[in-house]
Amino acid sequence: MNKRATAKDVADAAGVSRTTVSFVLNNIEGMRISEETRQKVLQAAEALNYHPDASARSMVKGKTFILGFVIRQEPDKAYADLLLPEVMRGISEVASEHGYHMIFKPVPPEDEKNSLTTLFLEHQVDGLIVSGPLSKDQEIVDLFNAHAPIILQGRIDYPNIPSVDINNRKAAEKAVNHLISLGHRQIAFISNASLQYSSCKDRLSGYRRALENAGIIYDDALVFYGDRTPDSGYQAMKNILGSSLKPSAIFIASDTVALGSLNTLYQQNIRVPEDIAIMGFDDIPLSKHLAPPLSTIHIPAYKLGWNAANLLINWLEQEETPQHDCILETELIVRESCGSRQK
Amino acid sequence: MNKRATAKDVADAAGVSRTTVSFVLNNIEGMRISEETRQKVLQAAEALNYHPDASARSMVKGKTFILGFVIRQEPDKAYADLLLPEVMRGISEVASEHGYHMIFKPVPPEDEKNSLTTLFLEHQVDGLIVSGPLSKDQEIVDLFNAHAPIILQGRIDYPNIPSVDINNRKAAEKAVNHLISLGHRQIAFISNASLQYSSCKDRLSGYRRALENAGIIYDDALVFYGDRTPDSGYQAMKNILGSSLKPSAIFIASDTVALGSLNTLYQQNIRVPEDIAIMGFDDIPLSKHLAPPLSTIHIPAYKLGWNAANLLINWLEQEETPQHDCILETELIVRESCGSRQK
DNA sequence: TTGTATGCGTTATCAT
DNA sequence: ATGATAACGCATACAA
User: Fold this and answer.
1) CATH code at position B175
2) C-beta separation of B257 from B296 below 8 A
3) Do B54 and A75 touch (CB under 8 A)?
4) Which residue range(s) make up the domain with B132?
5) pLDDT at A143 over 90
6) Same-domain status, A72 and A215
7) Res. B342: pLDDT tops 60
8) How far is the CA of B124 from the C1' of D10 (A)?
9) Is A146 in Cβ contact with B2 (below 8 Å)?
10) What's the CA–C1' distance between A301 and D1, in Å?
């Protein structure tokens, strides 16, 4: 890149001072500038293709105009999340509108060199949106208490940290109720991941609650665990089929995990939904294209990102911490994998 | 966030000058500093939790330490690309190792306010990795001629711009050869997207070449177009089935598009591979979990990103433009969707 | 071996 | 209405 024009160059070209240039270009209210100089400056800037230097600007403003979107997971898991791109799209759209950029980064907990705190300390970002935290995450708590602008996408076991989320328990309950309404009583559960994550805990509790409301006894033996990957779903399903359990339906709390489970069933020539009903969770973009199309719970991923970014930017610009969590509605999507009512 | 400590604070605490602090912290070679002051500075920095301010550092160094990863597509299409997360992972891993951050952004061509050039002019990034360019992209050419550090992930019709890519033609040929070796002669083609993209053009030409090498006459009527989405594959497949054509195999130059096509077949009770053979392209993470598991061409997405980032950072640090393109190998993945040899 | 002085490109506070 | 000038936090050439 050839050398860029500075404000001084524009000033020289227009025959005014740097201050005037700054006033004109930033549209300062108080100062009334003669239309003549105004035009001169504008033209000079245009001619020299002047754009303010981001570093210089951010140094003097004390702001980077950069939002961090960080995932509390190992990179391979983080990037495998099929809902993430939609969340990112929501964030970056809002960011873009407000003149912010977004840096994306997996930052697993307990990573010394690469902490959330460092991002603030080095002043790389103005604020953070943190996705998929563990229930206990002391660093987030500390940061919040130090008044760092930080929005959770998810939930942790600590009050008052502004968050954008869905009601996982309620959504899971909705999913299992659907299965129950279809006549299923023996319903297995495959968790999306370990119960260290609050979303997993909440989905399990929704499953349990739906069962109990229907007078079905909750049975630990029917609960299995995935780790967000199709492979884990493949394995979990094998375990179920290999056991003496004969569930007529399975609620899998992640479409991605369900993908692997479906694969097991395909291999063993077990038909869905004729032989077994499958209910997913997440509504990843391809669930509707699976064979059979997967019934699931729709998560408004784009809106999740959109809301998180808006809360954060509002916080940054208005200097006020959001007072309320933002809980978005989920939707039961009935496709074909659960079939219709059992005889 | 409470006020951060500056180099001056560290200097005061250690009882030395700011210069000394800088020397110690940046490990300047020439200057030999007494071990005593060295320790004093280190301890003071530690105690104050000092981290250099990114904006200030980048202003004085004339570098942002930020890499831009931009997609030449509309946001909704860009974020729907299921291979992208792996490419990002490759980039961000390398970036991270070298102390760079990555900003990700869809920047469609012809977007006035949001151009690649602006990113450089405002000095938001040190360099760019541009994914999925159209064959003709004047802005990229101009930028390259102005010596902007820019790596293509893909190819455009202009020589010498450093790029990281696969050999799309050869890969497509490989895929179609497999179909031919299985005994298929009537092979339809669904393009991943419009031929404005060179990857699409190249895949089509590979298809054509394989046909001709096998003495099969190329027929325009067998060529259909997707637009990277499952929906477009769904529609294309409907068109094929609705026509008088009766291909025994279809090469779909995108697994994502194939997903939709598979859905059409499922709905119409057409079995894969018994009734029709399907070959994909991309090897997105879930292709192996589909029913049936999809035969496809594996693209080393992570390595694509990894190489692009390495080339770019090398360019930035060594000040030398890469001289050679980096063409990565693809691999034919045989799973179940093509079946075995036809009788 | 360490300190002084200057510059990076902006914005913003003062005078004029 | 416009122009000097200071300040932001850091790195570094030069001086001591």
Assistant:
1) 3.40.50.2300
2) no
3) no
4) 66-166+301-328
5) yes
6) no
7) no
8) 19
9) yes
10) 51
Helices B35-48 and B7-14: angle between axes, nearest 10 degrees: 130
- Within 8 A of B102 by CB-CB distance, chain A residues are 103-105
- CB contact at 8 A, A141 and A117: no
A vs B: CB pairs below 8 A:
151
CB contact A54 to B (< 8 Å): yes
Nearest nucleotide to A8 (CA to C1') is: C9
pLDDT higher than threshold 60 for residue A214: yes
CB of B54 lies under 7 Å from some atom of strand D: no
| Backbone angles phi and psi of B85, in degrees to 5 | -55, -40
Query: What is the full DSSP assignment across A206-274?
Result: HHHHHHHHTTPPP-GGGEEE--SSHHHHHHHHHHHHHSS---SEEEES-HHHHHHHHHHHHHTT--TTT
**Tens-digit pLDDT profile for residues B126-164:** 999 999 999 999 999 999 999 999 999 999 999 999 999
Task: In whole angstroms, give the CA distance from residue A326 to residue A305.
Answer: 11
- State whether A37 and A149 are in the same domain: no
Quote the pTM value.
Answer: 0.93
Asked if residue A305 is part of any domain, the answer here is yes
Residue spans of alpha helices (H) in chain A = 7-14, 18-25, 35-48, 54-61, 75-80, 84-97, 116-121, 138-145, 168-181, 198-213, 230-242, 255-267, 301-318
- Å separating the CA of residue B312 from the C1' of nucleotide C11: 33
**Which protein residue has its CA closest to C1' of D2?**
A20
Number of Cβ within a 10 Å radius of residue A269: 7
Residues of chain B with C-beta less than 8 angstroms from the C-beta of A290: 263, 290-291
